Amino acid sequence: MAYFVILSTLTDEGRKTIKQKPERILEVDKEIERMGVKVHKQYAVLGQYDFVNIVEAPDIDTVMKMSVELGARGSVQLLTLAAVPIEEFIKKLK
Description:
Layout: E1 2-10, H1 12-20, H2 24-34, E2 38-44, E3 51-57, H3 60-72, E4 76-83, H4 86-93
Antiparallel strand pairs: 1-3, 1-4, 2-3
């Protein structure tokens, strides 16, 4: 399994949806899990991005498909970063 950090920014349409139905965030998490991407942690943040998610997926292709699916809806823009656990990073450097 691979880890990813997903930084997301809501579009105007996405902000309207969240304002009207905040629980939509959790519904999307369930949709993401059905796509094969497990949400480990999710934070609402202030600044350039609206949310930070730590997710796990079998491979980058699964995350790519999820990203395209969510992005095509027009409610969010995503920046996805591959993440390597520190223990694994150190092990690979040796």
